[in-house]
Amino acid sequence: MGLKTVVYFLPRPPKKVFVKAEELPPAGTLKVKEEFFMVRPSDGHLRILSRRCPHLGCTVNYSSGEDLFICPCHQSRFALTGAYLSGPAKKDLVKIKWEKVEGGIILEIPG
Ligand code: FES
């Protein structure tokens, strides 16, 4: 009987990021950051979405022409809510948890 090697990948801990209040998007706009989108529809409710594509992890871009998020690798498309629309991803963009703190918000980006 031979020995088998089992490899475990431990999840990385979430990364906390502080965003100053003045860097948040005004109602009806969005901002594109390196790792996430900050979307604030006209109702003013702030939504933070990961830019990591749920398919194979490419960085999703914002298409102003179509007003959608589109992955450049295999063309998965997502609504500004993060909802999956089409392509091989088959899942929504991950919503990033955030909390309001003095002078801004703190995000918890999954590892
Ligand atoms: S990695 Fe985004 S669609 Fe494949």
UniProtKB/TrEMBL annotation:
SUPFAM superfamilies referenced in this protein's UniProt entry, alphabetically: ISP domain
Species assigned in the record: Thermosulfurimonas dismutans
Co-factor requirement: [2Fe-2S] cluster
Single GO molecular function: oxidoreductase activity
UniProtKB keywords: 2Fe-2S, Disulfide bond, Iron, Iron-sulfur, Metal-binding, Oxidoreductase
Protein name: Ubiquinol-cytochrome C reductase iron-sulfur subunit
Gene3D superfamilies assigned: Rieske [2Fe-2S] iron-sulphur domain
Enzyme's top EC category: oxidoreductase
Span of domain Rieske: 16-107
InterPro entries, per database record: Rieske_2Fe-2S, Rieske_2Fe-2S_sf, Rieske_Fe-S_prot, Rieske_Fe-S_prot_C
GO CC field: membrane
EC annotation from Swiss-Prot or TrEMBL: 1.10.2.2
Lineage of producing organism: Bacteria, Pseudomonadati, Thermodesulfobacteriota, Thermodesulfobacteria, Thermodesulfobacteriales
